[in-house]
UniProtKB/TrEMBL annotation:
This is CubicO group peptidase, beta-lactamase class C family. PANTHER family: BETA-LACTAMASE FAMILY PROTEIN (AFU_ORTHOLOGUE AFUA_5G07500), BETA-LACTAMASE-RELATED. Residues 23-402 form the Beta-lactamase-related domain. Gene3D superfamilies: DD-peptidase/beta-lactamase superfamily. Pfam families: Beta-lactamase (PF00144). It comes from the Bacteria. InterPro entries: Beta-lactam-related, Beta-lactam/transpept-like, Diverse_Enzym_Activities. SUPFAM superfamilies: beta-lactamase/transpeptidase-like (SSF56601). It comes from Nonomuraea pusilla.
């Protein structure tokens, strides 16, 4: 477990220390009145950690506190990691963004688009445009998530075993093949829909690299960056460090979820879209690598132009998610927010209702975790907790406000 601590006087990097303390005072109320179990916040500017605080419990029943070494399920904050893995291979020429996914997953060769009917008797037609690697990175492939209850295709996914995880008993190759049998929501490239696309991308990484997906992440991202506590499982010797996952249940409040041995057993199909467990130290290093243009402490994962390309809006015509996306659950506001290659990208802070900088890129996880990177202000912010669902409280917008009001330089 690597050490994590404040590395500068906040004033030296443009923060008012008294204003920074407002972050803790605001978020502490969520723990004190039982809305959150506990949390950790890390604010960094110009490569220095200006604010680091933890409050509350990683397990309410035992009173074990949130600590800097606490392990958190980061769920969809896995997506940027998988996207970086794909772009490493893109830089090396192992894949191209316009490659049909069927080059790596043959079952994607004969995809069909849903046009009507029921889940039991869907009406479909052949796709006109193949699903390409860039469609997976931008969530414009036409894939879905079974836990969404919006469209008939969502129901078809649930019937195929895709609800809040992967179908049991299938490895990553078999999981991708099963997805290739299901109808698409729309013609690839014509809309945005939050989906299992990044899980499919994990299989593409596996095939393109010739390495098991989990091994590729470990060898090419985690080990080079010193992310020693990040992976798809937790060693049992670290079980006490793993935060308990809670769910907000109407009428009952915050209820702990029994996850069994799920975190301690290597998954058959590691989820590039939502399977990683990490710490503040590790994910902070990942964010610093991005903020520094793909390099950290002499280790370069990506070129700076690649990171810049990934973190621009890739939606057609400069559209935002409100214009181009389907109105379903996601980890960010739709208004004023575009989407790059694995990240939400802030296009219009006023339209989004966020006190933030245009060009900021971000994402979050199902258990209310979040991060953003602001290249203009040389800023990265990380928030970790363990509460489902992620939209229970306006934590992300409030945290942006609290960080930016403290930035006075």
């Amino acid at each position: 477990m690597s050490e994590l601590k404040v590395t500068c006087d906040p004033g030296d990097v443009g923060f008012d220390p008294a204003r920074l303390r407002r972050i803790d005072a605001h978020l502490a109320r969520y723990v004190d009145d039982g809305r959150l179990p506990g949390w950790l916040v890390l604010v960094s500017r110009r490569g220095e950690i200006a604010h680091l605080s933890a409050y509350g419990s990683r397990d309410v029943a035992t009173g074990a506190p949130v600590e800097t070494g606490t392990l958190f399920r980061i769920y969809s904050m896995s997506k940027p990691v998988t996207s970086v893995a794909a772009m490493i291979l893109y830089e090396e020429g192992a894949l191209d963004l316009d490659d049909p996914v069927s080059r790596f997953i043959p079952s994607f060769r004969d995809l069909r688009v849903h046009e009507g009917g029921t889940a039991a008797a869907p009406i479909t037609r052949p796709v006109r445009e193949p699903v390409r690697v860039r469609h997976l990175l931008t969530h414009t492939a036409g894939l879905a998530y079974g836990f969404q209850h919006v469209h008939v295709v969502d129901e078809i996914y649930r019937q195929a075993g895709f609800n809040r995880g992967m179908p049991k008993g299938l490895d990553l190759a078999q999981t991708a093949d099963r997805l290739g049998e299901l109808p698409l929501l729309f013609e690839p490239g014509t809309q945005w829909n939050y989906s299992v696309a990044t899980d499919v991308l994990g299989r593409v990484v596996e095939v393109a690299s010739g390495r098991p997906f989990a091994a590729f992440l470990a060898e090419r991202i985690f080990e080079p960056l010193g992310m020693t506590d990040t992976g798809f499982r937790v060693g049992r010797e670290h079980a006490e460090r793993l935060a308990t996952l809670y769910s907000l249940v109407p009428g009952d409040g915050m209820v702990p979820l029994d996850m069994g041995d799920l975190a301690f057993v290597p998954p058959l199909a590691p989820s590039g879209g939502g399977g990683l467990i990490s710490t503040a130290h590790d994910y902070h290093r990942f964010l610093q690598m991005l903020l520094r243009g793909g390099e950290l402490d002499g280790v370069r994962l990506l070129g700076p132009r690649t990171v810049s390309y990934m973190t621009r809006n890739h939606l057609p015509g400069g559209a935002d998610l409100q214009e181009f996306g389907r109105p379903v659950f996601a980890e960010v506001s739709y208004a004023g927010m575009g989407f790059g290659l694995g990240f939400g990208v802030l296009l219009d802070a006023v339209k989004a209702g966020l006190l933030s900088s245009e060009g900021e890129y971000s994402w979050g996880g199902a258990a209310s975790t979040a991060f953003w990177v602001d290249p203009k202000e040389e800023l990265s912010v990380l928030f970790l907790t363990q509460l489902l669902p992620s939209n229970a409280y306006p934590l992300r917008a409030a945290l942006r406000r609290l960080v930016h009001q403290a930035l006075v330089e």
